[in-house]
Amino acid sequence: MLTPVRHGVPQRAHIARYLALLLFVVIVFASLYPFTGWSYSGRPLLEFLFYPLPYYFRLFDNLANLVVYIPYGFGLALSFRPRWLGWITALLLSALTSFTMEFIQQFLPERVASNLDMLYNVAGAFIGATLAVSPLFRHAWHHLWRWRQRYFVANEPADYALALMALWFLTQLNPSIPLFGVVVMPLGLPQPFISPLDNPALFLFLLEAGGVMLHLTATLLFVTSFLSKRRYIARSVTTVVVLAVFLKMLAAGMLLKPFAFFEWINSNVLAGLGAGFLLVWLLTRFGRGVQLVVALLALLATQLISALWPLSANELDMLTLFRWGYGHLANMNALVEFLSRLWPLAAALCLIGALWNVRHMPSLQAKPK
């Protein structure tokens, strides 16, 4: 897939490749969490390949093994040319990834190496890779590529940014975390803490609302700074916010008990959202370089707020909000937390790369028209 760029130099778009790389990181974490208790049982290392089927069958785990490898196989297949090579390479790399994860799981007492997991993984990769090379989905991908060309600047950091935004939406799947929240107000009895302000409640409000404001600002400017034209700002901001709210509501409906459905929103969050929207409205009046710098500073500030937050959530108290079992819920929440920690670092690298482009390509410094 070729992407025309300035100066007439064609360049391959890397969205699918970045997406596959990010999914690989997700797969490694989900497969090896919690990364503790490493030991060797003494059993033959390849024994799990020959277990009688079905072995350790759990419907949720098997569906998760299938679903997560569908976009992974899809992204890998689109990362290589020609089509047949992409399809074969996607299956081989997916099978190698799955085998490696299952092999390593033998050394984790809380995980079970399973040939059935491998079969579901490869089946998911097969579906994804086949969709990627099929005429119908290649046609749809071509439309997606044209949408990317229309709305976003033609450089490699923009491809990276789009893949990262897909990852960011995954960080919104824990409905107990406030919308655009950086910190979480814990349940249970009040916790003692040292406040630098005479009014401790005001201190907590400033941190929670300020974190929401900075997270919203960083995320929206992360998107708007890569847009090709100013007239796309309003619809892009609206799309990101509406999708984030939809995912929170969907996750709340699926995971939370009815009384806790609106756990992800409160007055402090609303105050932070209002301030953040005003800040984004003002900052999008400036050029791309200013938006990139402010987005980077806002990302760094969210990490500072997270470090300053003096309260800690009790995991058992938080579990009372959910209707899921502890095991799957703990794994999902751990994955979301991992992605929430990974995303600011990955986004910061993307913003730094974009600033480098702006510095060396004067045509990118101007405001989007």
From TrEMBL:
Pfam families: VanZ (PF04892). Keywords: Membrane, Transmembrane, Transmembrane helix. It comes from the Bacteria. The chain crosses the membrane at residues 15-35, 55-72, 84-106, 118-137, 158-181, 201-223, 232-252, 264-283, 290-311, 342-359. Residues 19-133 form the VanZ-like domain. This is VanZ like family protein. It comes from Pseudogulbenkiania subflava DSM 22618. The lineage of its organism: Bacteria, Pseudomonadati, Pseudomonadota, Betaproteobacteria, Neisseriales.
